[in-house]
Amino acid sequence: MVLTLALERVEFLPLGRVTDDTSILTLRSLVFEPLCRWRDGRVEPGLLAAWAHEEDGRAWQFALRPGATFHDGHACTAEDVAETILAHLRGIDMFGMPWPYARYLAGARITPEGPGMLSISTPQPLADLPEILAEFFAMRAAPDGAMTLGTGPYRVVDHVPRSHALLEATDAARTPARIRLVAEPDPETRHRMVSEGAADAATNLERLPHPRLRDATLRWGHAANTLSVMYYLDCRRGTFTHPAARRAVNLAVDAQAIIETVFHGLGVPASTVVSPFHLGHREAALAPIPHDSAAARALFDQAGAQNDLVIRTPLHMPERAPQISEMVAHDLARAGIPARIQAEADRPDYARQVGRGQIGDLAIFDSSPHSTFRVLNDKISSAVQGQWWQGFDDPVLEPLITEANRTMDVAARAQAYAGCLRRLHENPPWLYLFHPVEAFAARPDAPPLALDHRGVLMLV
After folding, report:
1. Strands 137-138, 33-34: parallel, antiparallel or unpaired by DSSP?
2. Distance (Å, whole) CA 259 – CA 250
3. Torsion angle defined by CA atoms of residues 382, 383, 387 and 392, in that order, rounded to the nearest 10 degrees
């Protein structure tokens, strides 16, 4: 049997390139193994089958899965894993900007201790190290130079970049025996492929222009994503240096109305800087900040907000960013705060501008790491002042972050992160909007499939 999946993209990225593209993650999860597996804020064994650490969290030992073998027959060793980690430390993102992994592991010693054992020591405690490693996949180059050799359940037998890939199970007993992945960027065409039998399933159908007109004879599945659609607030200068104004903008904007109007209900309102599936969110037990224009107006008055606000937006990424920004401007006007929109057509340069703090008063963006540690480290902490930090400084929050980062027990660390998330609910550095709900469709006779909260389509 050949299972045919229609995805937005089919592409093998270089070693060291992290992505939140759900199509590429679906392909990766079939061909490669992550070093560790992330499941809704908890970390489980992957290619690294077990680990232990010294009490202070500075020294770790990792054991590889016994018998791990690349699809060309070469054994996967601790040296391969060390090279995987080092490649990620050197990596850049899709906009040409460096990933922060080198900062997390600055001064680390990554040492193969034999074919199946790796040690990592860091100058400072790093309790979230396995969660960081969950973003790394071990891979090696095939004879054609493409990074298509992994240790996962399916090997690549044919592929044309950005067109299609044909995978074959490494275990003869596995079903389906073969999976064909076809790249089709248009969601309506992907939907039609499943309806007409050209594909067994298709993903990212939440992007249909009219999702309520979808084929009801198909089997549909949905999952909220860890991604946060949000607006950075300029906390260095202007209106949002005042905590009352930051709270006010969250009261002013009706996130649920944006979800219903722009995304046909396919979204979950956000309550803090991470999704309900991040470590600490469940323990924080937060509800979204309610929409209240009158309360927003009173807080804007308290903050002395007078000038027109500048809303910066790209044309895409997040999806339908201009429409979202129009609704935000409308809601701000209802709260007595006029706003004007500046659009940026060059999406890569928009990301670089945001990284330099050129965000007007507020700028729409998305926050993709499924690690609570990473969101706090890269975007929130004034002690770190990472790549995406926008000047937010909360002396109550910083010791909470430090304590959480150094708490080795997972349950206790979840509670510690919950304290951080509650504080960020009270004193928001962003305008919190929503977490997208993704959708797939499958033919009634297709094997059981499901989406996880990263947007990966999985065989059940």
Report:
1. antiparallel
2. 15
3. 0
Question: Which pair of structure tokens corresponds to residue 428?
Answer: 């928001």
DSSP states of 7-35: ES----PPTT-----HHHHHHHHHH-EES
Query: Which sign does the torsion angle of CA 188, 260, 343, 93 carry?
Result: negative
* Beta carbons of 277 and 228 less than 8 angstroms apart: no
Question: For the chain, how long is the longest CA-to-CA vector?
Answer: 69
- The pLDDT tens digits for 266-304 are 999 999 999 999 999 999 999 999 999 999 999 999 999
Q: Which of 216, 230, 181 is nearest to 201 (CA)?
A: 181
Instruction: Report yes or no: 9 and 80 within 8 Å, Cβ to Cβ.
Output: no
| 421, 414 contact by CB (below 8 A) | no
Q: Using an 8 Å Cβ cutoff, are 446 and 1 in contact? A: no
Query: What distance in Å separates the CA atoms of residue 437 and residue 119, rounded to the nearest whole number?
Result: 39
Please state, in angstroms and rounded to a whole number, the distance separating the CA atoms of residues 249 and 148.
Answer: 46
d(CA 356, CA 352): 6
The pTM score is 0.95
